[in-house]
């Protein structure tokens, strides 16, 4: 069995990594120019030829690709190879507009699963582990990606998919699962259900969780770690670049190492497209340098984050990206103020509330309204109406301090906010309905 910790790559010197990237990039640009008419037209429009791209330093010369391009080219327009060479299709979990469909050759599937295997190994996984995959299976990349990675590491893999939470816990106990992979909101729900079943973290054997696919805060990480008795690792990815495993956390839990031998990250100013230096916040852009079927160059993810090459104690030299701090497109603008749902979540958790909340934005008399519904914990629920109203005001003040705009806070009874088994839907923007 191949060892999925690959220090010759994960701990390579900058020069060694650049050599890999330069070689792969030059070949990939040629591959795309020759095989993807849609991108060739974009390059021609910009007056760039494959000969202009000699190294990573030339990356900025290439045109960007956006989700709008993916929609234009749907479904086959960005294919880099003949359909008969493809073995798999996956799709985004998006609910608006046409979904993105991504294609994979067998080599692409292998590459993707290798990335997920690295993430599992970085979370302490070995062939001694039982890995319960509770991401959704199907078109969504979460289940299939981590499932493949888990096989490669040699873990005993439990392809549970999401849902049926009591059964998840039953299997977890009976089969001694040591690693759980799911969305952070589902992990929080599993923790809650465990408690409701009268069980403690010590009653299960989990040691690590690999959570991603949606934004989550450090406070939520601590809550999940406590409720399940585990160390919680972040994992990032998107369908367009293959799925989970583009980047992953190590024991340091200080940002996610990007698998730079497959994906070159850049941070740009989302308004101007200008490339920004490391340690600066901006929009994350990825170039996949060895995918065959869906080889996206300079794909704008819309995720806002920071890249850092600060030394990591784990020994990996792969660049680290911060947790996405929101998206440049679904950032809310409320009364002219940019608001990221994660900012509200940070306040809720630091004030001792549950991560079960719903943000509702609407418009009344030409003014935006912001309502935040937050579940009380059972212990808090016994408070008098007056005490609850005082708490609502205190929480509204704390959120105002963070955002600069005042919300109306509604503390609601335990379990009254619908739980999610996949990605949580935390924002209802009713303004769109009136426009
Ligand atoms: O969510 C792939 C995935 C599956 C990643 C399982 C991690 C674990 P999409 O459905 O295409 O793919 O959604 C991609 O989800 O652009 C981010 O906005 C968000 N996202 C993914 N991982 C994280 C994360 C999968 N760790 C979009 N933190 C991305 C915050 C994340 N946001």
Give structural notes.
By secondary structure, the chain is of the alpha/beta class. It folds into two domains: 330 residues, ANL, N-terminal domain (Rossmann fold, 3-Layer(aba) Sandwich), CATH 3.40.50; 98 residues, ANL, C-terminal domain (GMP Synthetase, Chain A, domain 3, 2-Layer Sandwich), CATH 3.30.300. Helix content is 33%, strand content 23%. The strands form five sheets. A nine-stranded mixed sheet has the order 4-3-5-6-7-8-9-14-13. A four-stranded mixed sheet has the order 19-18-17-20. It has a three-stranded antiparallel sheet with strand order 10-11-12. Helix 2 packs across helix 3 and helix 10 packs across helix 12. It is globular. 45% of the residues are buried. The mean pLDDT is 93. 5'-O-[hydroxy(phenylacetyl)phosphoryl]adenosine binds next to strand 7, strand 8 and strand 12.
Essential attributes:
four-stranded mixed β-sheet, 435 residues, 20 strands, 23% strand, 2 domains, Rossmann fold, alpha/beta, binds 5'-O-[hydroxy(phenylacetyl)phosphoryl]adenosine, GMP Synthetase, Chain A, domain 3, nine-stranded mixed β-sheet
């Amino acid at each position: 069995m191949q060892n999925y910790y690959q220090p010759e790559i994960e701990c390579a010197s900058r020069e060694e990594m650049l050599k890999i990237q330069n070689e792969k990039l030059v070949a990939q640009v040629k591959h795309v120019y020759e095989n993807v008419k849609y991108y060739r037209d974009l390059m021609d429009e910009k007056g760039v030829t494959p000969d202009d791209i000699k190294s990573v330093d030339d990356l900025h010369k290439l045109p960007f690709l956006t989700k709008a391009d993916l929609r234009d080219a749907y479904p086959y327009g960005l294919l880099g190879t003949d359909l008969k060479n493809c073995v798999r299709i996956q799709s985004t979990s998006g609910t608006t507009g046409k979904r993105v469909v991504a294609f994979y050759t067998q080599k692409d599937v292998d590459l993707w699963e290798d990335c997920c295997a690295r993430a599992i190994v970085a979370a302490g996984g070995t062939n001694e582990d039982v890995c319960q995959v509770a991401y959704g299976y199907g078109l969504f990349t979460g289940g299939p990606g981590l499932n493949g990675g888990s096989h490669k590491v040699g873990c005993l893999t439990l392809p549970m998919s999401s849902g049926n939470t009591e059964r998840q816990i039953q299997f977890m106990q009976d089969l001694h699962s040591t690693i759980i992979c799911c969305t952070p909101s589902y992990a929080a729900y599993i923790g809650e259900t465990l408690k409701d079943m009268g069980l403690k973290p010590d009653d299960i054997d989990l040691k690590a969780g690999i959570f991603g696919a949606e934004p989550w805060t450090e406070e939520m990480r601590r809550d999940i770690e406590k409720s399940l008795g585990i160390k919680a690792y972040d994992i990032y990815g998107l369908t367009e670049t293959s799925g989970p495993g583009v980047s992953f956390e190590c024991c340091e839990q200080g940002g996610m190492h990007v698998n730079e031998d497959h994906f070159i990250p850049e941070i740009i100013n989302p308004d101007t497209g200008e490339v920004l230096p490391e340690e600066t916040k901006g929009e994350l852009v990825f170039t996949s340098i060895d995918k065959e079927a869906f080889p996206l160059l300079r794909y704008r993810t819309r995720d806002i984050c920071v890249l850092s090459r600060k030394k990591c104690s784990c020994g990996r030299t792969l660049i680290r990206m911060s947790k996405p701090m929101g998206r440049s497109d679904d950032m809310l603008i409320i009364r002219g103020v940019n608001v990221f749902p994660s900012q509200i979540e940070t306040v809720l958790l630091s004030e001792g509330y549950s991560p079960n909340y719903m943000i509702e934005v609407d418009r009344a008399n030409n003014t935006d309204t912001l309502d935040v519904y937050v579940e009380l914990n059972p212990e808090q629920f016994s408070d008098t109406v007056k005490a609850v109203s005082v708490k609502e005001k205190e929480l509204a003040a704390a959120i105002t301090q963070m955002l600069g705009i005042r919300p109306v806070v509604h503390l609601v009874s335990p379990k009254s906010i619908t739980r999610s088994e996949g990605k949580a839907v935390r924002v209802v923007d009713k303004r769109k309905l009136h426009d």
